[in-house]
Amino acid sequence: MMLQPRFKDSIHFKNFWEKGNGKQLIDFSGAEVSFKNFEKFSHYFYHVDELGDDVIAEVYFTKKFHEASKEIEQYIRNGVSENDIAPESVKKLFKQTQAKPDWLDYNLIKSGAELCMRCNVDSLISLRDYCLMGGYDYAYLNKPLIVTEALKKGAVKRLSETLDFWVNVTRYDALEIHKKGYEFAIKTRLIHSYARLSIKKHYKNWDTENWGEPINSWDMMATYIGFSLVFLHSLHKLGNTFTLEEEKGIFHLWKYVGYLLGIPEELLPDHKKQAVEYFYLWTSIQPPSDKDSVLLAHSLLDESLENPILKFKFERRNLRYLHICCTWFLLDHEVCKRLQIPDVPMKNGFPKTKRILNKIFDFCMSRESRIQKGNNDQLKVLKDYLRVAKDSNFH
Which residues form a coiled coil (predicted)? Predict the structure, then answer.
């Protein structure tokens, strides 16, 4: 199927790139956006991770789920060689993930991980109120979430899974082969394949021409640009500073995670200029929020009220208010209105206070202290979420 940048003349696209966050991203990165490379990337809208899909078909669809998962865990933790008695699809997958690409630099990954930890709660605000919430504005990107009934799963469970993944791939040495982050990347890759094949099997109304293949490679690129470029831009907006080494590191970390997840290497940007230019092309095939987007956005907002981590109702209402403030501060107002984010009084107060506090932290606390504190605080938040998710009735 031939794809065109069908929304390039739409109001939502123009406003984003000419006066909204898109314009800020161009200024932030020095990107030179155009459609000259559109055809180079657009075919990935119909491209998927066939290695992952083959493992699901050969292992998961021929055994009980828990038996297949146990088998794959052994391969992840112990490795697979050509001489092992393992399915051919498994050998091919692990031949790719166990091969370290020539460009891999663990020192850069360490710098990226340190930035994620050093920015502490701002990292979690950025992930939730900019990356995740902003992603809901792209209607076609969300279709796999909708058809797999993610809303029934609940935002608490979804957030705990996302946080579990993010924390475990952004710690020291996490992405070395057989370590925890490596394991999370492989498992996430197979979850994507399992979901994709299930959608294709059970959801007969999937609109491939408009929505692309379920969880296709181009949408995956956009998602991981969210974890690198959009995340970095959010930290910047909240008043965090970072070195050039840390900036390179965040892109390198997510480039390697993307590689482990089966995203084609040519879709994985090395720096912010490249990332903005890639993202520009992808946004031209995405319509703005629809009714499903609004449902997802409000499910995320209401998570603060439903989550029992905070004991008292007034604490939960206050947390929801703070997330709403950050969402208005980080996202375009046009996007917030499309997602029907409630307008609240003094919405710039909390984000602007955070900017001032970050200046003070930069002056008063050493980088090492901030990394250590950020790591501990993020692990504490993750522990609380996993405890709550474990106690829920969802299976």
Answer: none
